[in-house]
Amino acid sequence: MELLKIENLKVRIEDKLIIKGLNLTVNLGEVHAIMGPNGTGKSTLANVLAGKPGYDVLEGEILFMGKNLLEMEPEERAREGIFLAFQYPVEIPGVTNANFMKTAVNEIRKYRQLEPLDAFDFLQLMKARATLVGLDASFLQRNVNEGFSGGEKKRNEIFQLAMLEPKLAILDETDSGLDIDALKIVANGVNSLRSPERSFLVITHYQRLLNYLTPDFVHVMFDGKIVMSGTKELALELEAKGYDWLRNGNNGSK
Amino acid sequence: MKFVENMRNLFDTLGLDSYSEEIKHIRRNALERFVRLGLPTHKNEEWKYTNLSFLNDIDFVFPQAPQSTTVNDFLLKHNQIFSSLLAESILIPVVNGSFIFDQGVLDSTLNLLEFRKVFANGILPEILNNFNKFYDDTNPFIFLNVAFSIDGISVKIPSNVTIEKPILLLYIYDNFQPSISSSFAHIEVGDNSNAKFILMFYKVPVEVSLGNETVNIYQKNGSAVEVNVVQYDLNKLKLVNNINVVLEGNASFRGNSFSLNTEFVRNNLNIAFEGSFSSAVLNGIYYCDTNNFVDDHTLVMHNVPYCQSDENFRGILDGQGRAVFNGKIYVARNAQKTNAYQSNKNLILSEEARINTKPQLEIYADDVKCTHGATAGFLDKEMLFYIISRGIDKNKAKSLLLNSFVSVNLEKIEISPLRDLLKEIIAKKLHLEDIFFCSALEMELIKSTE
Fold first, then answer.
1. How large is the average pLDDT for residues B103-110?
2. What ipTM goes with this model?
3. Which residues of B touch A95 (CB under 8 A)?
4. Quick one: pLDDT band at residue B106, thresholds 50, 70, 90?
5. Is A119 close to B445, i.e. CB distance below 8 A?
6. How far apart are CA B313 and CA B359, in angstroms?
7. Residue B132, pLDDT above cutoff 50
8. A2-13 and B293-302: which strand pairing?
9. What does the pLDDT average to over B223-241?
10. Which of B256, B275, B294 lies at the terminal end of a domain, its last residue?
11. Which helix (H) or strand (E) holds A89?
12. What is the mean pLDDT of chain B?
């Protein structure tokens, strides 16, 4: 089933055209990796999918489960099943992780016409999911990302992903700033969340995350477009040859 | 002019006959000083943004004597909200300016304290002498307070004691005619003693009141005092609240101020360091919407070397809410090695809301560290998007951020039932009651299943 279909997407930030005609189709249950050098529009794509304000969509269409995604408010997209793991998660003092997630989960449940979870069930769920990414229960009482290390912030993103159970999870440079141990924890967390009912869009600069997180497809983004698509071997080839390989004119699609 | 006339006429009805000549003299002089200074206008620097002219349109009388039932009625009505706080405090109600001692005084710790009526015996001149520096022309109301206070108390906490429970001064205004209430409290905290106070205000919103209250605190060497001011839901109350603190050496003071849903509040919080190695921490929260008005004036006088002050006020302005923050730091020529920090942050949520914020630094010493900063801005867009991207409604996301903004200062309140109460009040104001579910019980659940 086609979960996400992006056709000829063109996006501008202020006066600068960043995404210049991008096409991508993600089926339910697939893991897609998008690689590419810095400044090529990868994070812009993630933000546009999540509905962050400040991006001008000039042309193109994005369908999510057949619905026009661009017409939805960001909170509506989340309730429909889109989740963005932020590259730079923000700190929210005065709001505990527990309260934050309870609010989010119950708003999403309400949207899906489900009963809110009671406190006991909810806490059980939170603790189970926290364990998944190696966070202990005391983390639930801490304020969202406040005073967290870089690794803890990224693990918190995956914890939230596990709590909200999206259909499409977008990981925006989730591996950046992680040491190898943290990277493994994050990758294991993601692997355990893979399911035929969930797709992943993994945005990364480096290949190393893909050692732990085997993608079904790898796309190379360059200058606002997907210039090459293939399987996981493409990532290895890219790692070996470097991004200069693209700049030297080899940008024909495979 | 009408307000001043009104006050002068009222003074003649005060009935000073029972007082000594000395007290009568002090009171008359105080009234004369007030009359001479007059009602401040925008031309007075310290009252520039605080319009008092409405006082000229009200004909004030003295309030009726407090009914013995007033306090009980209040407690019955509000038991649910305040019960946990009341259970853990020593309650001293102040009804229409009168201190009521038959309630709550039973608490055994109070035996430690020495209470004296300030106006009934000769201690007033001596008391005022220590606070002279705060009785200046910038604040006419403090003289009106001396002239008008129905009675006054002096509380003396001996040396080397810790009063565990907070002493709760509950100011209740209950009047059927437009009234002016004044009270005077003097608190002396002995060497190395610790005490906490809560000044909570409650208005029965029938007829307008002008409250003009003074609390003077004298902290001896090594003492630690915390004062929490709670101003919440004060319709029909115009309040001028004066707190003056003098610290000897090695002493520490913590002040927390909280104002929400207040029609008109002017807080004067004045601190003077008279001994070295002392510190003061002043935290404040004001949240003004509809037609609320709060004016927080603080003064920290570093008169001696090696003292430290840390001031942090945060405000939310919405609707047609208005607030004033004026933070003055004075560092005397010999107050070297002073460390003074001040910050005032504001969030503005509507076109018509307004904040006038003014840091005022007067530094005469050359080896000091003083920093200050004032900001007025809007909600952080990155934070807002982060929350919304988790499926949370925009309005709720805004509320969470507002809660987050003030929580920094709420967390600094050390009296836990008070901290919980204020968190609850803020959550209710922001319609977040359903969110803050992690009650003690649920926290237990988290722990027990660990």
1. 52
2. 0.95
3. 400, 403-404, 407
4. very low
5. yes
6. 11
7. yes
8. unpaired
9. 97
10. B275
11. none
12. 91
For residue A139, give the chain B residue with the closest CA.
Answer: B446
Closest in A84, A102, A137 to B437, CB measured: A102
Q: How confident is the model at residue B127 (pLDDT cuts 50, 70, 90)?
A: confident
Q: How confident is the model at residue B103 (pLDDT cuts 50, 70, 90)?
A: very low
Q: In terms of CA atoms, which chain B residue is nearest residue A49? A: B389
- Residue B225 tokens read as 């005092």
Q: Distance between CA A133 and CA A137 in Å, rounded?
A: 11
DSSP β-ladder status, B252-273 and B369-377:
unpaired
- Conformation bin of residue B222: beta by default, left when phi > 0, alpha when psi is -120 to 50: left
Per DSSP, helices labelled H in B150-300 are none
| Residue B342 lies inside a defined structural domain of this protein | no
Q: Does A23 touch chain B (CB under 8 A)?
A: no
Q: Which domains does chain A have, with CATH numbers?
A: 2-247 (3.40.50.300)
Mutate to test the interface with B, among A95, A159, A163 (most CBs of B within 10 A): A95
The answer to whether B393 contacts chain A (CB < 8 Å) is: yes
| Adjacent-strand bridge partners of B225 | B195, B253
**Structural domain boundaries enclosing B139:** 2-275
Task: Check CB contact of B383 with chain A, cutoff 8 Å.
Answer: yes
B350 in any annotated domain: no
Q: What pTM did the predictor assign?
A: 0.88
Measured between CB atoms, does B408 come within 8 Å of chain A? yes
